[in-house]
Write a structure and sequence with these properties.
The chain has 219 residues and is of the alpha/beta class. It has eight helices and eight strands. Strands 1-8-7-6-5-4-3-2 form an eight-stranded parallel beta sheet. The longest helix is centred in the last third of the chain and has 14 residues.
Length: 219
């Protein structure tokens, strides 16, 4: 069984103190930093780009898990690689050629992730699973923080875990969207081994990040 990891989303951090917030996450036991990149086109919101990621990376000793909610994504992959992304996750809907975009990420010696929205069928990635390092299952519709968790996506996680076991593959299964202390256990039981959480990590238990990360990891 894969080790459970927590990838706190800095979308819920204090943006005026991002460098210090990342240090707080590291001290609190975060396994990686989840960075949501939104372009106002692929999703109806705008966040940060390569210059901010490059600046933040200087404050971090743990991997940057960069989720690109942008379209067209292919031509920007190298920019985010150069900025310091360790994992680059893209959406099938954001590229004209998913295989080509995955291979570009791998050529840059980064881990390649593919994100599936709640309505996206896993069929779109079945032929590429041997090239993918991480599959990110969205348990909300992407674009905004603070949405309610959609339990129906757990079936998708179970199916992916089954396929991974049958094909003897080794990709990580990550889940993002409304993750809290209650549904985190259901996600882990379904087969997720990386949990993205923003509000719960930063705001619960009076902002005790270490405690919140430990609670999310516990089954």
């Amino acid at each position: 069984m894969k080790k459970i990891k927590i990838s706190p989303s800095i979308l819920s951090a204090d943006f005026s103190e991002l460098g210090n917030e990342i240090k707080r996450l590291e001290k609190g036991g975060a396994d990686m930093i989840h960075v949501d990149v939104m372009d106002g086109h692929f999703v109806p919101n705008l966040t940060i780009g390569p210059p901010v990621i490059k600046a933040l990376k200087k404050n971090s000793k743990i991997p940057f898990d960069v989720h690109l909610m942008i379209s067209p994504v292919h031509k920007y992959i190298e920019d985010y690689s150069n900025a310091g992304a360790d994992i680059i996750t893209i959406h099938p809907e954001g590229t004209d050629n998913l295989k080509s975009s995955i291979l570009k990420i791998k050529e840059l010696n980064k881990k390649a992730g593919v994100s599936l929205n709640p309505e996206t069928n896993i069929d779109v990635i079945l032929n590429e699973l041997d090239k993918i390092d991480l599959i990110l299952i969205m348990s909300v519709n992407p674009g905004f923080g603070g949405q309610k968790f959609m339990p129906e996506v757990l079936a998708k996680i179970k199916e992916l875990k089954k396929i991974r076991d049958e094909r003897k593959l080794d990709f990580d299964i990550e889940i993002d969207g409304g993750i809290n202390f209650e549904n985190s256990k259901k996600a882990i039981e379904a087969g997720a081994n990386i949990l993205v959480s923003g509000t719960t990590v930063f705001k619960s238990n009076n902002g005790d990040i270490k405690k919140n990360i430990e609670l999310l990891k516990s089954k």
